[in-house]
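Might you be able to review the protein record set out just below?
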Amino acid sequence: MSVGLDIKLEGKAGEYLAQLLARLGAAGRRTLEGAAARPVADTVRRHLFALGTSRHATARRLGATPTNVIGRTAENVAVRQGGEGTEVVVPHPMFRRAYRDIAIRPQRAKALAIPVSGEAYDKAPRSFADLFVWKSRKGNKFLARRDGQRLSLVYLLKDAVTQPKDPTLLPTTAELSAAAKRGLAAMIRRIATRQGGAA
């Protein structure tokens, strides 16, 4: 998933940037885009590292060890430059939820298996050899196992799940834009200093 930004500089700053881009050409544009993207990536990383310390509700509820997926994603946030331009890449699909609701449906299995026990957290059903389908009186289906006479529910089975939009998963647009403008301004100052020195 990529973080998109629309940076607008108005007035004299915008005019200067337009003239600078015209002089620098395609390579210069990539340099400026990279300068804007790096502090954006840093801002996203800091946000995710902070978020990763607090988003463990499911693991706590199930008495399981957190997976630290947010922290691991933070470590791999990167700037990517290619033919389409410059992107800040957040390498996990869960962060699409920052912008919209996400509908999740099974890809290969007949149903989604949602952990309802600590032993199932961050494990696939195939990790268990003794699961069977059990249906509750309310019609809910589970993958369960028996320990003697005791029935243990391991996964809830669902045809689909919708995860609601959660803008707090990423920094705000204002925070991202401010970071990009800081990086851009710093690079423009360096270019202006070099050009002044060359003159």
